[in-house]
Amino acid sequence: MSSRAAFMLRALRYRNYRLFFGGQVVSLIGTWITLTATSWLVYRLTRSAFLLGFVGFAGQFPGFVMGPFAGTYVDRWDRHRLLIATQTLSMLLSFILAALTLSGHITVPAIIVLNAVQGAVHAFDMPCRQALLSTLIEDKEDLGNAIALNSSMFNVARLLGPTIAAGIIATANEGWCFLIDGFSYFAVMVALFRMRLAPRPPAASHKVTARKHFVEGWTYVFGFHPIRSIMTLLALVSLVGFPYTVLMPIFANTILGGGPYTLGFLMTASGGGALLGALWLAARRSVLGLGRLIPIAAATFGLGLIGFSVSRTLWLSIVFMIVTGVGFMVQMAASNTLIQTIVDDEKRGRVMSFYVMAFLGTAPFGSLMAGTLSARIGAPQTLFIGGTCCIAGALWFARSLPKLRQAVHPIYVQMGILPELASGLQTATEPSVRPED
């Protein structure tokens, strides 16, 4: 068991990654505390499903607009220093939100503005964080494990953050949640300053303009069928499925008849399911078979949403939230791992900015759509439609898998991944190396 656990945690043997992991897990707990508190605060002030969706839209829309351009500068600037800058700005925004709430001067327009500014910061922060990850892992064979552990870290925070927020909201005020989030950034700042990173060599892209750099990244992403297909499915699921998070206060309060603790239970269940999915991915030995997992996970996510939409009891809703968390996390992390494995390092920042745009950039439109639609036909019906669309997208992706394998096969052979890992997988009629993704 100890050797199995060591294998699952093998990326932690790298000092820089350990620092990154420890600092981020504290900061992300604070982030999830703020996300939960913000949703509850908006719903408490307005009782409006539309405004819940609009606040989510305001926080995520800048990532859609700015994300691809931000990726250009992530590839041109020092990623370590850029991450320090984005984390500092995020810390200041949390303190401002805390001050306004605790002083009683918070308003929905102020929340919208602060969310929009935070979204602009995230447009640089998230692709920078993803691109920096590959420099923290010396042996690239452990990159997939690092990504899976990152997903685990994200979901440990997702598991703990809403629970802590629910307790604070029930006994005090949402402002204390924002204040705790602000202080949580000190952990990641200390970790970033203690890292020992080799100077990044000047990239060839510095010789061209930022505009040409952007066009090059756009052509690479949308001209390569595997990356384009993976991001298309992720964008669809994020558009129609992921906005379930902004509707959680309605389910917790109106449909299930609960309060902040019920919201915490639902969000914790979703985070717990996602954590299980991430740990399962961390135990995998290679990227082989991840392509098959992507549509299966997307369909599982859709089924979880459909089940949750028709449930009217808390325990059953919690079960479906666990299923939903597993499905979404496995799809997201598997997509991330495959993309990071096949992308050119020089283009990593730009590619990951498009990944973030697909993952989070479409979510603001989904949040706005979910808020508007749920105000007209109800939150349960809105999630039922979203889950059905996720299943349809999974079926489309599954049909395109053979073409994706043919496109990725030469890259894996060049990397030396398939010859060692595909032995014993081929049949008498197959070539000696089979592109299992």
Overall number of structural domains: 1
- Terminal-residue CA separation: 29 Å
CATH superfamily: MFS general substrate transporter like domains
Q: What is the average per-residue confidence, as pLDDT, rounded to a whole number?
A: 80
User: Architecture, according to CATH?
Assistant: Up-down Bundle
**Rounded Rg:** 21 Å
> In CATH terms, what is the fold-level topology?
Growth Hormone, Chain: A
Uncertain runs are 413-437
How many helices? The count is 17
Structural class: mainly alpha
Elements, N to C (H/E) = HHHHHHHHHHHHHHHHH
The general outline is globular
By DSSP, the count of extended strands is: 0
Q: Quickly name the level 1 CATH class.
A: Mainly Alpha
Oligomer: single chain
Helix content: over 70%
| Biggest sheet overview | none
Describe this structure in words.
This protein has 17 helices and no strands. It is an all-alpha fold and 437 residues long. It has a single domain, classed as Growth Hormone, Chain: A. The two termini are 29 Å apart. Helix content is 80%, strand content 0%. Helix 3 packs parallel to helix 5, helix 3 (49-76) runs antiparallel to helix 15 and helix 4 (79-102) runs antiparallel to helix 7 (174-194). The chain has helices spanning 2-8, 15-46, 49-76, 79-102, 108-136, 143-171, 174-194, 210-223, 225-240, 248-255, 260-282, 290-310, 314-342, 348-361, 363-377, 379-415, 418-421.
Search tags:
Growth Hormone, Chain: A, 437 residues, globular, disordered C terminus, mainly alpha
